[in-house]
Every structure is written in structure tokens, then in C-alpha cells.
UniProtKB/TrEMBL annotation:
Topological category with respect to the lipid bilayer: Peripheral membrane protein
Organism name: Desulfovibrio litoralis DSM 11393
Protein name: Signal recognition particle receptor FtsY
GO annotation, biological process: SRP-dependent cotranslational protein targeting to membrane
Residue numbers of the full-length protein present here: 142 to 439 of 445
GO MF terms held by the record: GTP binding; GTPase activity; signal recognition particle binding
Domain of life from the UniProt record: Bacteria
Cellular-component GO terms for this entry: cytoplasm; plasma membrane
Complex and partners: Part of the signal recognition particle protein translocation system, which is composed of SRP and FtsY.
The encoding gene: ftsY
Lineage, top ranks: Bacteria, Pseudomonadati, Thermodesulfobacteriota, Desulfovibrionia, Desulfovibrionales
Length: 298
């Protein structure tokens, strides 16, 4: 079991140290307090727009609660982050097999994340099939197959260069015929033009929906926390191109940029469901906003 607080230690170290200095250095919530806090948020890779939005929310909360002492600031921040991270909707029962599209740019940890999710589902007694819908790189297909074997999931692929929509269609066929509960479909991670990306993904959506109403049940975007603001722009791109239901934020173990989680949820209103805290199949944690806020704030 991975300890969240360990995984977040870099972000926390930075944030916590600066927050302590900020709190000790101020007797009231004056302008210089907020200016300094804004700088801290920017350093944690929250981004300007989200930083000022968050500051407005915190000011309102402080005023409403009649607080004047910066010593209460961490508690207020934790409360606000918890509200920001509160899950908004839960997905209702689906007709099996549940079909999940995995989306994201190369290198963010998509393959590893599919393996982690598959492992988790297998441990919960579900029968999982993984489909190699990123047909662009032969190496990507091999890598995914290796992971499928390692976690004990089924695997479906066609040769490199095949139509990703054909892979999706045939994988779904296999999942239905062979009684799988859950199908993960990997998709190409090239940063193509938005139009190509949209066309490719929409074709996959069409063939899945036609064969199995309701599919794909979820589209999960994988983004790399170490890329900070790039993670945010990728979220925007994919959200506009194909719609995203959930986000998984990877590599939080190696970065001080954990603040990007706040930015993603505030700016795009897409829930973060899991976070990646390492390279092994167990290094995946369900995302819990309060726990995350507390881990961040130390
Ligand atoms: P893909 O190109 O998006 O499929 O990325 P991969 O799954 O191949 O991962 C790229 C690299 O990131 C590999 O070296 C993984 O081991 C590593 N990686 C993936 N997730 C995590 C994570 O949560 N933490 C750390 N530290 N490394 C990760």
C-alpha cells in the first residue's frame, strides 16, 4: 500500500514550508498576505487564473466565518479544497461489459495506468480485457501486452497500423462473447491536430455505441502531474475534442507540482478519480479530496 503523504512529499514540503512562513509572517489577512499566498500557489503550479479564483473563494469564506487570524488559514484552505474536490456525480450501473476509453498523450503513464486499473479490477474479482487501440507504435502494443500478462488480464490487439476503431470493435466483440466484465481500450497518444484526434476518437465512439448501447461508459484522461501547466492544457484539448468523464493524475510521487490537481478540478470541473504514485501496479490510489488536501498541507 502506498502512503499518499509519502507520494506527495515534494509538493507538500514546498507548500507547507511556504504556508508556515506566510502564516507566521502575518498578523492579519492583509494585501501582502494574499500577494504572498498567490506566489505560493503559482510555485505549486496552480496557474494565475485558478490562483485568483481560489483567493476570492478563500476571502469569502474567511469573511463569512469572521476570521481575522492567519493561524486559522490552513484549516480554511483544507475546507475549501475539500469542497473543490468533492465528487459531483457517481456513475450508475452499466450493462456489461463496461467499456472504458483511455486517453492521453504519449509518455504520461497511460500504459502503466491501464495496467494499474486492470490489476485493481481483477483484484476485485472482475474479468478484464485490455485492447491495444494505439496502433501507431508497435512498441506500445508490445508494452501493453506485457502488462496485461503481468496483471493476468486478457489482451486484444491487431497489427501495428490497423484502424483503431476496428480494434475497438473487435475487442468489444471478444469481450461480449467471452464474458468479460470490463474492457479498457487504449487510444493513440500522438499529439495530433485537434481535428484528427476528434475524428479518430469519434469513430471509436460510433462503432462502440452502435454495437453496445451506452459504450463507451467512461472516457478517462491520463495526465502527468510533473508537466504542471501542460497537464492543464492537455485537459482542455481533450475535453474539447471528445469529452472527458474522469482524470487520472500520474507521477505525483516525483513532483512538487501537485497543485495542478486543484487547477484541473477548478478550471475544468472534471473529477480526478485516481492518482499515480509510482511505477508498480499497486501504485495507484483512489483520489480523496480531503485526504489530498490534508496531505498537501501537511
Ligand atoms: P505512456 O506512453 O503514456 O503509455 O506511458 P507509460 O505507461 O509507458 O509510462 C511512461 C513512464 O512513466 C514509465 O517509465 C512509467 O514507469 C512511468 N510512470 C507511469 N506512472 C507513474 C507514476 O505514477 N509515478 C512514477 N514515478 N512513474 C510513473
Amino acid at each position: 500500500i502506498v502512503k499518499l503523504s509519502n507520494g506527495l512529499e515534494k509538493t507538500r514540503e514546498q507548500l507547507s514550508k511556504h504556508l508556515d512562513t506566510l502564516i507566521k509572517g502575518h498578523k492579519s489577512f492583509d494585501q501582502s498576505f494574499w500577494d504572498e499566498f498567490e506566489e505560493i500557489l503559482i510555485m505549486a503550479d496552480v496557474g494565475y487564473e485558478v490562483a485568483s479564483n481560489l483567493i476570492e473563494r478563500l476571502k469569502a469564506r474567511i469573511q463569512k466565518q469572521g476570521l481575522t487570524n492567519p493561524e486559522d488559514f490552513k484549516a480554511v484552505l483544507a475546507e475549501e479544497l475539500n469542497i473543490i474536490f468533492e465528487p459531483k456525480k457517481r456513475i450508475s450501473a452499466v450493462n456489461l461489459p463496461e467499456v472504458v476509453l483511455m486517453i492521453g498523450v504519449n509518455g504520461v503513464g497511460k500504459t502503466t495506468t491501464i495496467a494499474k486499473l486492470a490489476h485493481r479490477a481483477q483484484m476485485q474479482g472482475r474479468k478484464v480485457l485490455i485492447a491495444a487501440g494505439d496502433t501507431f507504435r508497435a512498441a506500445a502494443i508490445e508494452q501493453l501486452e506485457l502488462w496485461a500478462k503481468r496483471v493476468g488480464a486478457g489482451f486484444f490487439a491487431k497489427k501495428a497500423g490497423s484502424d483503431p476503431a476496428a480494434v475497438a470493435f473487435e475487442a468489444l466483440d471478444k469481450a461480449i462473447n467471452e464474458g468479460y466484465d470490463l474492457l479498457f481500450i487504449d487510444t493513440a497518444g500522438r499529439l495530433q491536430t485537434k481535428v484528427n484526434l476528434m475524428e479518430e476518437l469519434q469513430k471509436i465512439y460510433r462503432v462502440l455505441e452502435k454495437k453496445h448501447p451506452g459504450a463507451p461508459h467512461r472516457s478517462i484522461l491520463v495526465v502527468d502531474a510533473t508537466t504542471g501547466q501542460n497537464a492543464l492544457s492537455q485537459t482542455k484539448l481533450f475535453k474539447e475534442a471528445c469529452g472527458i468523464d474522469e482524470i487520472i493524475l500520474t507521477k505525483l510521487d516525483g513532483t512538487a507540482k501537485g497543485g495542478v490537481a486543484v487547477a484541473i478540478v477548478m478550471q475544468h470541473d472534471i473529477p480526478i478519480t485516481f492518482i499515480g504514485l509510482g511505477e508498480k501496479m499497486d501504485d495507484l490510489r483512489p483520489f480523496d479530496g480531503l485526504e489530498f488536501a490534508n496531505a498537501l498541507l501537511g
